[in-house]
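Please produce the structure of this protein holding fe (ii) ion.
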Amino acid sequence: MKTSPAFLTDIKEIRQRARKDLDEGAVTKNYGGNVKDAINLLNHAVATEIVCILRYKFHAVTAAGLSSESVKAEFAQHAKEEEEHLDLLAERINQLGGKPNMNPEGLLSRAASEYVEGSNLVAMIKENLVAERIAIETYREMVRYFGDSDSTTRVMLERILAQEEEHANDMHDLLVAQQGTPMLME
Ligand SMILES: [Fe+2]
Ligand SMILES: [Fe+2]
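Below is the modeled complex.
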């Protein structure tokens, strides 16, 4: 009896399974991780991004003082990029069969970052730098969590992480420009 090569059998099985799992969307039984935990984690990041968008937007409008125009532009740019992160996270949650949690109720308790207005330009920049550092830490942990079990989510998080690192760097540069002396990283 002629047997088909193993990889062909595999393809046939994969196709059959794909048809069976059509109603499950992009995530099938092959998903390496725990979908519920994944969605939960991603929803924490959703909350963090929303808080960051709101904080940057507030700062972009209310910042005042010397050279505040260029700083405002930087804040506004960051708000836009945090919104892109939010979109990526929400899309991925949807692909995983979950529901992005955009509910304003309890938002701050789900978010890793804080909403602090800051009373002057330097205070605002400092708050944003702190928030970026928190975002970097949480995204690093999430990248480690997803590892090889869900490389699509991991790659997306790595892209976001790279941009958060740029954001932190931008805030650090602004702080140095405002204060005149390099701030030592603690
Ligand atoms: Fe972000
Ligand atoms: Fe950021």
